[in-house]
Amino acid sequence: MSHSAVKGKLIAVIGDEDTCTGFLLGGIGELNKKREPNFLVVDKNTSRHDIEEAFRGFLKRDDIAIILINQTIAEEIRYVIDSHDQPIPAVLEIPSKDSPYDSSKDSILRRAKGMFSAEDMR
């Protein structure tokens, strides 16, 4: 049995310092065998390229089941998120302290809504 199957799958976080700190205090922080963390703290000096690389890296890891990303950061790499069409890892956009969640910007939610008719929602 593989190591990740024994311990379970991880949640990855791409977010501002407050978001990452909150999740790390909640116990989600892990390093894989290559000593790569399952989170990226994004600040004003973090390049779009670094965010995109972290996101793509999390997509490739077999130990990650969910990627949480602040919606404001997701907006910067929307084209990459929109191209992700696999159910795992699931990508969930979350609000940050400074920016409330806007469901109209969430491409994954829009895609999910398109799978159901109004009749299904009753």
UniProtKB/TrEMBL annotation:
Look up keyword Transport and say if it applies.
yes
Q: Which UniProt keywords apply?
A: Hydrogen ion transport, Ion transport, Transport
| Gene Ontology CC, one term | proton-transporting V-type ATPase, V1 domain
Q: Name one GO molecular function term.
A: proton-transporting ATPase activity, rotational mechanism
Classification via Pfam families:
ATP-synt_F
- Oligomeric form and interacting partners: V-ATPase is a heteromultimeric enzyme made up of two complexes: the ATP-hydrolytic V1 complex and the proton translocation V0 complex.
The text of the family note is: Belongs to the V-ATPase F subunit family.
* Matches recorded under NCBIfam families: V_ATP_synt_F
The function of this protein is:
Subunit of the V1 complex of vacuolar(H+)-ATPase (V-ATPase), a multisubunit enzyme composed of a peripheral complex (V1) that hydrolyzes ATP and a membrane integral complex (V0) that translocates protons. V-ATPase is responsible for acidifying and maintaining the pH of intracellular compartments.
Designated name of the protein: V-type proton ATPase subunit F
Organism annotation = Magallana gigas
